[in-house]
Structure formats: structure tokens, C-alpha cells
Amino acid sequence: MKLIKMACMTCCIVLASLLSACGADNILHGKSDHWDVSLQRSTGSFNIVYIGEETKLKDIEYDISGTNIKYQGKASNEQEVPFHISGPIISNADKTKDPITFRISWNDQSESVTFE
Fold first, then answer.
1. How far is Cα 27 from Cα 98, in angstroms, rounded to an integer?
2. Is the pLDDT of residue 98 over 60?
3. How far apart are CA 33 and CA 113, in angstroms?
4. Which of 7, 50, 56, 108 is the most buried (most CB within 10 A)?
5. What is the average pLDDT across 3-13?
6. Which candidate, 81, 78, 48, 82, places its Cα nearest to that of 64?
């Protein structure tokens, strides 16, 4: 299990490095108590990583919203940790400087990360 978690963290570090090489001024990064979220405005790609202590996650849903931005997704079935979602392109992310909010719900809990 520790080997899988180490591999996931290494993957996240590599992804963050790649994103930073592609225009660090466009990368937004934020954390809540249980989630680590990054967004690259220029491409609209995002990454959501669970950083909490729970070992099983269920009913995971995420909602990304902002001015002219509305994107929703969910993970089916119960998920094991480590868990991460790498998202496709969010259209219009590069066209707005307004706040973009990621709302994530799981296991009857909910948290948000807002990029100003």
C-alpha cells in the first residue's frame, strides 16, 4: 500500500513539474483539509488528489464553477486511497480571471477550494 501511495505522490510531483514548465503563471494550486487541487488556466486541465486519512471513498462528486464555467464529474463505485482525478479541459478557464470554485463531496462530506 505504501508503494502505491509513493507512486501516486511521485506521479503528482511529475505532473506538477510538467505543468510548471508549461507556464507557471497560469497554474493555480489550493488545498482543503482533505483535497489538493491544481488548475492550469491556459489549458483548462485540472488535478484533484485526496490527501485525507480515510482509506475508502464513496459517492465522490465534483463540481467546478465560475463565470461561464460549469463542469461536473463523479467517480463510480467505492474508491480506495490513493485517489486522484485528472480532468479534461475546462472550456473558458483561460478567458476568465474571475474566481473558479471546485466543490468536492464524498462519504457524506463536502469541501471547496476557490481560486481567486
1. 14
2. yes
3. 10
4. 50
5. 47
6. 48
Strand partners, 94: none
Spatial neighbors of 93 by CB under 8 A, at least 6 apart, are 39, 41, 43, 44, 66, 69, 100
* Residue 112 grid coordinates: 471547496
For residues 75 and 16, which has the higher predicted lDDT (pLDDT)? 75
> Residue 17 is which amino acid?
S
Half-sphere exposure of 7 (CA within 13 A, CB side): 7
Q: Residues 6 or more apart from 16 whose CB is under 8 A from it? A: 29, 38
Preceding peptide of 99 cis, ω within 30°: no
pLDDT averaged over every residue in the chain:
83
